Fold:
Amino acid sequence: MSIDKDTAARVAKLARIRVADEALPALAEEFNTILGFIEQLNEVDVEGIEPMTSVTPQRLKRRKDIVTDGDIQEQVLANAPDSREGFFVVPKVVE
Structure:
């Protein structure tokens, strides 16, 4: 698959990225390079390979799942710019 200048412009528009017309050929070439790398990766045989998150085996750190009573409403609202009746007050954004 090859990306041309028009396709690069469409991708930039969909991504809401403003790209100058003179930069579109270079962007199309970068896209083609990326697609080339992806084609190389597709050639690798990964049959029977387990997915991993690190090159060294590690267990994820976990905390104990302890139920607490909470009851720290004052501490939570302490840094709020405005609070009333135990709730955050935010500016009205919908009429």
